[in-house]
Design goal:
Blueprint (H helix, E strand, L loop, with lengths): L1 H20 L5 E2 L8 E9 L37 E4 L2 E4 L1 E4 L5 E2 H4 L6 E11 L3 E10 L2 E5 L2 E6 L10 E7 L2 E11 L5 E8 L7 H4 L1 E4 L5 E4 L4 H7 E10 L4 E7 L5 E3 L7 E11 L4 E10 L5 E5 L7 E3 L5 H18 L5 E3 L9 E3 L3 H7 L11 E6 L2 E6 L4 H14 L2 E4 L2 E3 L5 E4 L3 E4 L5 E5 L6 H6 L4 E2 L10 E4 L4 H4 L2 H4 L9 E2 L2 E2 L11 H17 L3 E5 L12 H10 L2 H17 L6 E6 L16 E6 L16 H13 L3 E6 L13 H12 L3 E7 L10 H13 L5 H12 L4 H12 L21 H16 L4 H21 L1 H7 L1 H11 L11 H10 L2
Parallel strand pairs: 1-7, 22-23, 22-24, 24-26, 31-40, 32-33, 33-36, 36-37, 37-38, 38-39, 39-40
Antiparallel strand pairs: 2-5, 2-7, 3-4, 6-13, 7-12, 8-11, 8-13, 9-10, 9-12, 14-15, 15-18, 16-17, 16-19, 19-20, 21-29, 25-26, 25-30, 27-28, 34-35
Helix pairs in contact: 5-7, 11-13, 12-13, 15-16, 16-17, 17-18, 18-19, 19-20, 20-21, 20-22
């Protein structure tokens, strides 16, 4: 009997121990700590869908609530040992505590698949608060918190801790968590913990996003259910703008956060949304999203050398718009093999067309106000199948056509003689919508290659030091260093020496200036500049400026103004202001320009340039290996630039991007081009001239640099690296990878201690023998894989600076190993006649040929 009692007691103790072991511990919510104790129940059978396209949904049978007899998934009552019956199958809730972060369902429940199981626990929160449930599952599943479904994922995936951050509101006291996890094969597990709530952790597309349906209607949606959103969100403010920045929707919601947005459905286009979310805990977050709205329709511009389109022009189209129509026709034919006819615009025409210029049809279809004639901004956009390209009549529409060909069809005009026109069998589009304005008003790319008026037009360059015949016209700057051209000493000095500089008590004219305090000088200059303006009305700015040397007038009258203003620029501005006042009434749309250059670079203290005066500020003394803002050598220049910008209503920059002493020599300044142009733009520059190798071909990387400068002057924010790559791989073909390698090698020669100026020499320490050798070897490899003879010539032209450098550094060796002969062959073939601004060709050949 004692034995029986003993056995019964042991059995009793085991039962008590078993029941105790089945109880869940009282889990308190602690941030970052894994929830390790759960009640588990499963497996419940699933079926793979017969239709493979539905495999990404939950498997068949998953949606069934098998807990309905114990409260269901939304109101579960669960306890250890509790029974769940599904058909003839009975499963128990079992308690499980892991020693790891993850619950391994295969080890605890079953190795079968496909199946699902439940995991249930309760957690204690000391207060009402928002938290993130950080959840990872293998595979998909669903999560309920206090009976509210807060998460669902239906696809196969591996376990990744914190894969989903689910915002939840925990109430003070106990909170129920029910997790349902699918098993599709292989591992089957989950892990869960709580993390502090922060709006910075939101994945934007999970919280709120805007998407269209197949009919083009748009709706706000969320990964989270309405119940969850109502717990979390106090207010949502939605603002939507179209691709051009026009607001097309504004509204706020305090309930029903998800649902339709009232956006037009008849025009497929890009939009930008800003969704401001105010949470009930006081936090805010902003969600920004780009999306499309409107019914998506495909239109065929051309296919198999056929097109239903035509190019339509208003009867009042400008000359540049007519020229642009022929450009569009020409390049579309080169791309597609079909010729689109150019016709007069017929408002009643129902067929598809490309409409150029702003007219009544454009106005009706675009809903935009007419641009002013001189506006260079452009907009190309489709209205259904019609394509509208329009801007100002002078150059805006024309630039829009060139941008359309470049952006949408891949056309490139790298140099006057190198054009890329991609062949295409078909162009299908759903929408076009692109608008731009110039970053710099007057854009002067002063390279020999850039002087070609058609190249300049295609690359949106509109500035010049002369007045070339160019489609759309030109914003010309008449002359520079004009004191003597306007008042030649040979005409006046003999009778009126007082018109010229007084130096050391004597009036002189050789390498001197004008006596600007002399009223007769003002009278003559004014009369002659008016005469020039009447005879040459094509210019925008007319120059009245110092000669290209020093020796300003030191007479007492001139120096009194100089001393009062603290700079020689004071008397120049004082003089030029009077000229500008004298011409203003007759020429209200013109400017008088002058220089802030060398001895006049320092700004005056008090006097300000008039509204119709343009100050041409020059950077000739600067370091060009580092940008203006970062280089200690450039700080005085930058300070003076900032001061001039505060004084002058308009600056016109004369900048330098070339080594005047050695055009044909490496010059690593590409890294400063964008920053310097942006600095000029930010300091009231209405125009920028980038002076370069202007007398002949042959400037180092002149083709690339002139192309990049054209892009930067139009858009100072452009992606420089993308432009450089586009050019290098487009212009040099397969050899481009080696040209890029050399390009990077050269630019990387610059260090914080490297300062280069306009007179960089071949013996500068930046050019080591190792650099020359490596560069030469790179170009030898580039030549081997050139696509054709034309590309080979491009590569050889790019190698010319290294050959020049080698000839100048080791002339005897260059004669011996063929470098000099190779240089001469390329230079002669490419008509490189200026090796420096002064010429330099004869001096170079003499140096190399006579070296011993």
């Amino acid at each position: 009997m004692c034995q029986k009692l003993t056995n019964s007691f042991i059995l009793f103790i085991c039962v008590i121990f078993s029941i105790t072991a089945q109880k869940l511990p009282n889990t308190v919510v602690v941030d970052n700590q894994w929830i390790k104790s759960w009640l588990l129940c499963g497996p419940f059978d699933l079926q793979k869908p017969a239709d493979p396209s539905k495999y990404w949904n939950h498997l068949d049978g998953y949606e069934k609530d098998v807990l309905s007899k114990s409260g269901g998934e939304t109101n579960l009552i669960a306890s250890a040992g509790g029974i769940v019956k599904v058909g003839k199958k009975s499963l128990k809730w079992i308690a499980h505590t892991t020693t790891d972060s993850a619950i391994d369902l295969r080890a605890v429940l079953s190795r079968d698949s496909p199946v699902f199981a439940y995991a249930y626990t309760e957690v204690y929160s000391a207060k009402d608060e928002m938290k993130f449930v950080a959840l990872g599952t293998n595979d998909g599943g669903s999560l309920w918190v206090n009976g509210v479904q807060v998460w669902d994922y239906s696809a196969e995936r591996g376990l990744k801790p914190d894969n989903d951050l689910i915002p939840v509101v925990l109430k003070k006291g106990n909170n129920k968590l029910l997790l349902k996890v699918e098993q599709r094969g292989n591992k089957w597990e989950f892990c869960l913990r709580f993390l502090p709530f922060s709006t910075s952790q939101f994945t934007q597309g999970d919280f709120f996003r805007i998407d269209p349906d197949v009919q083009g209607e748009t709706s706000v949606s969320s990964k989270y259910s309405d119940v969850v959103l109502n717990q979390l969100v106090q207010k949502v403010i939605i603002s939507v703008k179209d691709n051009q920045g026009k607001t097309v929707y504004e509204g706020s919601r305090t309930t029903g956060f998800c649902g339709k947005l009232d956006l037009r459905t008849d025009h497929f286009q890009s939009h930008n949304a800003s969704i401001d979310v105010l949470l009930k805990n006081g936090e805010t977050t902003r969600i920004q999203q780009k999306f499309f709205a409107g019914k998506r329709t495909e239109y065929v511009l051309f296919s198999s050398q056929k097109s239903d389109y035509r190019i339509a022009l208003d009867a009042n189209a400008s000359d540049s718009e007519q020229w642009a129509a022929t450009e569009l026709q020409t390049w579309l034919k080169g791309i597609s093999g079909t010729t689109l006819p150019i016709v007069n615009l017929d408002p009643s025409y129902k067929g598809p067309q490309i409409i150029l210029g702003f007219n009544s049809v454009t106005k009706d279809k675009s809903g935009e106000a007419p641009p002013v004639t001189t506006d260079e901004s452009y907009h190309y956009v489709n209205a259904g199948r019609d394509i509208l390209i329009f801007g100002g009549k002078r150059r805006g529409t024309m630039y829009g056509v060139m941008a359309f060909l470049e952006n949408e069809l891949g056309c490139r005009w790298y140099t006057p003689g190198s054009t890329v026109i991609p062949k295409r069998n078909e162009l299908v589009f759903t929408y076009f919508d692109h608008k731009e304005s110039p970053g710099i008003r007057v854009r002067n790319d002063f390279y020999f290659e850039a002087f070609d008026p058609i190249w300049a037009t295609r690359n949106k360059m509109n500035g010049s030091m002369s007045a070339p015949v160019q489609p759309g016209g030109i914003e010309s700057y008449w002359a520079v260093h004009t004191f003597y051209p306007l008042m030649p000493p040979e005409e006046f000095f003999a009778k009126h020496p007082e018109y010229y500089s007084e130096l050391e008590g004597k009036r002189v004219h050789d390498h001197a200036q004008l006596c600007l305090s002399n009223p007769e000088v003002l009278k003559i200059i004014t009369e002659r500049i008016k005469k020039r303006m009447r005879e040459s009305p094509e210019y925008l700015i007319y120059d009245v400026s110092q000669n290209d040397w020093y020796n300003s007038c030191q007479c007492s009258q001139c120096q009194a103004i100089v001393k009062r203003e603290g700079s020689e620029s004071g008397i120049v501005i004082w003089f030029v202001n009077q000229v500008a006042d004298a011409v203003k009434s007759e020429f209200p749309d013109k400017f008088i320009g002058t220089l802030a250059y060398q001895y006049t670079r320092k700004p005056p203290i008090n006097i300000r340039p008039k509204d119709n005066v343009v100050v041409r500020f020059c950077s000739i003394e600067c370091c060009f290996s580092h940008d203006f803002k970062s280089c200690p050598e450039n700080q005085a220049f930058l300070k003076e630039l900032n001061t001039w910008a505060s004084l002058a209503p308009h600056l016109y920059i004369w900048d330098y991007v070339v080594n005047f002493s050695h055009y044909v020599m490496p010059y690593p300044n590409f890294n400063v081009l964008q920053s310097n142009i942006k600095t000029f733009r930010d300091n009231n520059a209405i125009g920028i001239m980038e002076q370069a190798a202007y007398q002949s071909r042959g400037g180092e990387f002149s083709e690339l640099r002139s192309y990049l400068i054209s892009k930067l002057l139009w858009n100072p924010e452009c992606d420089v690296d993308a432009v450089v790559n586009d050019f290098i791989y487009g212009y040099y073909g397969r050899s481009g990878k080696y040209v890029r390698q050399y390009f990077d090698l050269l630019q990387n020669q610059v260090t914080p201690e490297t300062h280069i100026h306009l007179g960089l020499t071949p013996t500068d320490r930046i050019f080591t023998d190792d650099f020359v050798t490596k560069s030469y070897e790179i170009f030898e490899e580039a030549k081997k894989i050139a696509d054709n003879e034309e590309t080979l010539h491009h590569v050889e032209m790019a190698s010319l600076p290294i050959l020049y450098l080698k000839c100048r550094r080791t002339p005897v060796l260059a004669r011996y190993d063929g470098t000099y002969e190779q240089f001469c062959k390329i230079a002669d073939r490419e008509k490189v006649t200026f090796f420096s601004e002064a010429g330099g060709r004869e001096a170079f050949h003499s140096l190399v040929q006579n070296a011993k």
